[in-house]
Write a structure and sequence with these properties.
mainly beta, 18-stranded antiparallel β-barrel, two-stranded antiparallel ribbon, globular
Amino acid sequence: MKLNRTTPLIAALVLPFPALADFVEDSKASLELRNHYINRDFRQQGAAQSKAEEWAQGFTARIESGFTEGSVGVGLDAIGQLGVKLDSSRDRRGTGLLPFGPTGKEPVDDYSELGLTAKLRASKSVLRLGTLQPMLPVATYNDTRLLSSTFQGGLLTSQEIDGLTFNGGRLTRANLRDSSGRDDIGYGAATSDAFDFAGGTYAISPQLAASYYYGKLDGIYRQQFAGLVHTLPLPGGFSLKSDLRYFDSRGDGAERAGEIDNRNLNGMFSLGKGAHRISAAFQRMSGDSAFPFLNGGDPYVANLVTFNTFTRAEEDAWQLRYDYDFAALGIPGLTFMTRYVDGRNVKTASGDQGEEWERDTDIAYVIQSGALKGLSLRWRNVTFRSGNGLTTDLDENRLILGYTLALW
């Protein structure tokens, strides 16, 4: 670990307590700055507002300690988040950047969250209790706006068996990406006492990994996931990555969110060589309901794109995507992405022929040297249209500036 000028002083303070040495010396801290502007222009007839437009500045501080020495190591992590409104109004609200005030109409001037996580390590297992940001097929936190969402609960991660990473735990509350409050864990308008989950990923070989997870949102839904990820080197410098995912979701107990009945088969195949990558994805929904996932999280699907998720009841969707890295032309840090997603056969109140499509373009640049080294600039352009019972049409632009400062 690289130490700054304050580290020797901190280390000196803990010298009388040698068990705390790694707790301090292995610690790290950072401050992430994110400036986010969204302009969403609604194009459908009868839209509740003509556009949503907001601009805000986010600050996320993270401190991660090491572990104390001994057979059971103890540590503590912290995350502090602050969002500040730069521009918005009640007639331009609703981008997901800012929460609303007590009246439910006016965007707040600022909002914040503080989360603490206690952690214990024994052998190759770590138990975390408190604020969590899981990245698992059945529970994935959201990080697409000003501040990231968080959950409250416990998570055990174990790698005691070579090649196997096991995760299990319970989530009880969620802090949404545009909220300061911790709400009961839930799906849609329904809430639950807890979401329990367990599963893992096993590396069958360096090129092939298999995953299985089970999750239950008590009284709402239960979900099974199976996945395969394979990387295949090909002649001529090509590489083919295959990512296959399958979910089976059913109602649980009182089914407080209504009937849950969904099978979700999706996957993506990516062919790359040098600076180029071409990807194709598919998604097939079957059953009587949409694909369920936790409030405050994102669905773990191939067609999770900038605006839409394409996870409605009975929806069939496909995607074509192209990525290019301009480092091949002597411009390191500059990247380009464009994709098109088409969804058909959506089950709606008026029939089963609902349609929707989205076209995204991303251009991003990370400054490579100088005083602003590491500063990222990203422009995201979105066009979304729907019909045959679906009624959202919009054009959108997002401008995002990001910078992460390592404090030590």
